[in-house]
Specification:
Radius of gyration: 31 Å
Distance between the termini: 83 Å
Largest sheet: 5 strands, mixed
Structural class: alpha+beta
Number of strands: 19
Number of helices: 10
Shape: globular
Helix content: 25-40%
Number of domains: 3
Strand content: 15-25%
Bound molecules: the ligand Nc1nc2c(c(=O)[nH]1)N[C@H]1C(S)=C(S)[C@@H](COP(=O)(O)O)O[C@H]1N2, molybdenum atom
Amino acid sequence: MARHGSGIEGKRFIAWAALMGVASGAVFLGVAELIACLFARTASPILAVGSFVIDIVPQPLKEFAIATFGEDDKVVLLGSLGLAVVIASALGGGLQLIRPPLGVAVVLLAGALATAATVTRTGGSPLGFLPPVVGAIAGAVLLLILARRLRAWRDGAGTGSQRSTPGSAVDRRQFFLIAGISSVAAIAVGVGARVTSAATASLEAIRDALQLPTPNSTVTIPDGAELDVEGVSPLFTPNEDFYRVDTALTVPEVDPETWTLVIDGMVDERVELTFQDLLDMGVDEYAITLTCVSNEVGGGLVGNAKWLGVPIRDVLAMAGVQDGADMVLSTSVDGYTASTPLEAVTDENRDAILAIAMNGEPLPLEHGFPVRMVVPGLYGYVSATKWVTELTVTTFADDEAYWTPRGYSAEAPIKFSSRVDTPKSGTPVTAGTVPIAGMAWAQTVGIDRVEVSIDDGDWQQATLSTAVNDDTWVQWFLEWQAEPGTHYIAVRAVNKAGETQIEERAPIAPDGSAGWHRPLITVTG
Ligand SMILES: Nc1nc2c(c(=O)[nH]1)N[C@H]1C(S)=C(S)[C@@H](COP(=O)(O)O)O[C@H]1N2
Ligand SMILES: [Mo]
């Protein structure tokens, strides 16, 4: 029997082996870009290797490149790099056919080099190693699969005058199908992921470079605003811990340079503001606790922040609100809408704002960069539109917001509430003196007192932190002589209007949960 890989037929298979190498290379890079986009935006192996090459190229060669290609030098570099990848992958494919597993070894070696280039240059992304590692594994696996098909096709086809077996046609078809689909998918996914990563990375840079204006007034934090009890939530929620709720599949990307806010509808004059126009109005600092209607009793969809912003009523006044309107329909760049009662945003005594900063930083992208609404006392879905681009003055009779036909009330003031942060059910505590502590909120009204009942005993008054204002939550605390066993700790708040939280539970739909938080705590002896 003739030796495989010899003669005309053998050359043909070498060409297909080179092709399978290129397909594996494409899958390597495509998968790497996808992983980078998902977990480590700055860890693109191709760009990392490119930067590495730029770093090691001698200065005279660099100057030659700039002199010869001008501003296209980076394109030329990436083009050359791409060509090198194609040639190396083709070689890897050929090797895998004639000297397995050398081809796979080439892919893994490339993976190791790309990983070295990526982790040494991704500036702190702890998952920077993931894209090249996962990419190399995907490329190697595809190479193994394709090589097996190609070999089966070759061996079935035989050489010279031998006739093909019926099986070889199937192997050939599968070879091209797998190679074709995986290359096309890898290129599509890779290019899509790269474009997405690049856009977000640069928007992140724009956000980082943004200079926040100095506010005309800042929030005064009174003495005793924060209790020193372990396990209680901080008075201000760090941005990275702040809950996030929205319908956006990917975080909308809005450049403050091109962002505008349109105020239209039942107004005397349509107004369009740029980001700079908004800053020029002057910003103030506000402390406001945001709450989601989906927050279950005892849940974490509530957070407190210091916001920099401009009162919405000032912006509406520029347009001139007409009689008969009772609602502002705010629209986000992603099409999301919220219906806010007009009176809530025109009330002189309510700090309804267009916010541009959160806890001393420009809004994080996922919290609405560059501009969002924050309205004290209303659940987020009817007031806190992120990436806001339009305020339409209208009526509840004429317009409807995103959540209204989906089972939630058109108007939704926040129900005042309280929760136990520590101790936690599921985390036993030791008998003795145990601090019980948590949070309570009654935005726009204020918390008057918080009471705790152990095992349905008498209500005992808790110590409160000093409120920053009536729009922020407060911490509360009570010392407990805990005895071994299991105990219910119930908490209820009384607001400054004299209302007491009732025991009866309400579900989150249509207008927010209600009831006492009453965790069961285990105390060990
Ligand atoms: N554009 C947009 N804005 C939105 C939402 C949304 O889905 N899209 N969700 C709202 C809801 S339900 C809440 S509770 C708050 C949450 O804001 P956060 O994610 O900054 O905590 O944003 C509001 N703003
Ligand atoms: Mo929400």
